Amino acid sequence: MSGGPGLESLVDQIISVITNDGRNIVVSSAVAKSWGVLKGFDQATNIILDESHERVYSTKEGVQQLVLGLYIIRGDNISIVGELDDELDASLELAELRGHPLKPVIH
A Gene Ontology CC term for this entry (predicted)? Predict the structure, then answer.
């Protein structure tokens, strides 16, 4: 596979993706109760995620998690991709967390 810099090392890993429109997509066993992972990518850095969830943040209520399942994100909509510490993520009380939603990235 050729594509985005460093993505090779994240294939079959548990990751978090921040999109240009401010969405936080995670593939995490803590959320999915299974091993969700980055399944692959292409030369345009389009990525395929398995067992993915979107985390929706709010200042009024805890983090909501929307099940996405198998999900493709276009490379031109990706702002950040990073490996997720599954143990640390599992220890978070997401229902208790509050936060402002991310604003869109302006290029």
Answer: precatalytic spliceosome
